[in-house]
Amino acid sequence: MRTDCHQHLWPPELLDALRARREPPLLRGWTLHLPGEPPCRIDPAAHDVEARRARERADGTGRALVSLSSPLGLEHLPGEDAEPLLEAWHDGAARLGAPFGVWAAAGVTDLDPVALGKTLRREEVVGLQLPATALADPRAVERLGPLLAECEDADRPVLVHPGPAGAGHDVPGWWPALVPYVQQLHAAWLAWHVAGRAGHPRLRIAFVALAGLAPLHHERLSARGGALGRLDPGVHYETSSYGPRAIDAVVRVVGVDPVVLGTDRPYAEAFDATGLPGFGAAFAHALTVANPTHLLEGSRP
Q: What residue spans define the domains of the chain?
């Protein structure tokens, strides 16, 4: 079954909760307001559930795993502010139905591993998405230990996604995706290797956007006194926004087995109609079936 490991789709419950807010992050109609950023118009068609369902079926997608948009900053809000928004996300996403699966979200300011444990037991939930901004250094990884342990105990993976960018008003629209998002993913990837695996030996974790190409810096890491060590079979790399050149380069460092398909729909579109880099049927099966199964279930079909 073809799996797309990374999409975004805002259910009506989340839209209503964002429109009910009086301070950013909030929605006014279809205009998104985030702290420190200019208002951004959201395309309603991008979050039309039935239209998206039809498109996934047309693409032959068996599972499309949707996640809360961490750049909204909802996970970073204080617990009393975050809780109703995260509840709206989980309740709404649970009602999306096939082919959509759900990455859970959790507050990272006031940790509540008990609530996360309950969420992870929901049938439609495949694992937990965390903002890279909450994993910015080894100490931050250690601080999130209770949430990571909850996922490990539940045998559910973690997806690391860029968090709030605070890009400002005077940069091109693509700036957040190319500058702060990449920097955040680099930091989270390195922090995980320094402090994450030792504390959570059984946890499977994936970094979106090929971890911002962080694995390609292994030579510089070595030159500066660090070491990647042996390849970690529990770390995966999702492909969104990258094409054949970047995927090929990362595969040369980490191999084929950790790489999983993700489109980041609707914010990015695949580099071709299928989302595949054109490396043949065996690679396509690994990218869309075998490797996602290992990420999500810890086994291979």
A: 3-297
